[in-house]
Amino acid sequence: MRAAVLRNGTVRARTIKDPVPGPGQLLVRSPACGICASDLQFMDHPEAGLDDDSGMSTYDQDVDIVMGHEYCAEVVGHGPGTERRIPVGARVSSLPIVVVPGGRRIIGQNPESPGGFGGLFLLTEALTRPVASDLTSELVCVADAIAVGWSAASRARLTAREVPLVIGCGAICLSTVAALRSLGVGPVVAAGLVASRRRTATAMGADVVADPAEVSPYEAWREVAGTGDVGCVVFECVGLPGVLDSIIKGSARGTRIFSMGGPPQGDLLRTLTAKRKGISIQFGGGPTPDHWNEAFDAVCSGRLDVRPMLGRTVGLDEVPTALDAARAADAPARIVVVP
């Protein structure tokens, strides 16, 4: 098959062997797969996984890895021991995890779990969901990004006396904004430096958007929340060193912070300031299966419109330049690979 292959820190399109489905697995074709910031982090920071003993993500620079974990797929074949409940030709997606003999692997982050930046890859049948929707595959594949924000918004359990502030207007920020609105939470304040991203945040449901270069996000939040006894819940979606610490410094007493960014190189935090302010910090992690399914259903049913997040599509030969383009601050929320 043809695939955009990561090796020694470089991605290029070439021909590699087709994957072979094992017990309980489906062989699927990749009609569309989104480029996520975590793909960039994975390829740029191989050292980040050195202290991860789960085996779910392994970057061996000396072997081929096909990235891509935000996919809509089409069933091509069934491995041994499958129930064959999903017919050949059906469109599907799944939480980006595949079960292999050695355990679970993140799709697109292991040599043995190739992802959607190639013509074919493998899914675990038990985790796979049929796409019951007329949406294009390019839109369906955005559901995985939505699931991250959906899970954070769900776990935050905002009360009627709390107003959310979402920091950063990248895809995870946008998914968090959309999830909060879908869950009936509002008003939603979002802050980001790039005008095009702020416009997208508005399209995804933000009530107020702020440019941190012109106004403090916390002042923008206070103007919305008022002077009463209203709590702040900050969603940190940037993932750059110093951002979480700046939120600790800028936030009011009793603020709850959900940090979903996670810079690979780590960060330094003013823990004493956080202690004195009584700030709670919860770190993100991936979505639970239930939250992933809820987000997937919301997207496929059309209840959550992801069209504002979709940018351009590219073929396999364009993946290297598309990865570079995705690094730009004003890049669309999602560039989608169409193998």
UniProtKB/TrEMBL annotation:
Any idea where the Alcohol dehydrogenase-like C-terminal domain is? 172-297
The name this protein goes by in its record? Threonine dehydrogenase-like Zn-dependent dehydrogenase
Pfam families found in the cross-reference section = ADH_N (PF08240), ADH_zinc_N (PF00107)
Which keywords appear in this protein's UniProt record, sorted alphabetically? Oxidoreductase
Q: Which organism is it from?
A: Streptomyces pseudovenezuelae
Query: Out of the domains of life, which is the source?
Result: Bacteria
Question: What residues does the Alcohol dehydrogenase-like N-terminal domain cover?
Answer: 22-93
Query: Known InterPro entries for this protein?
Result: ADH-like_C, ADH-like_N, GroES-like_sf, NAD(P)-bd_dom_sf
Q: Quick check: keyword Oxidoreductase in the entry? A: yes
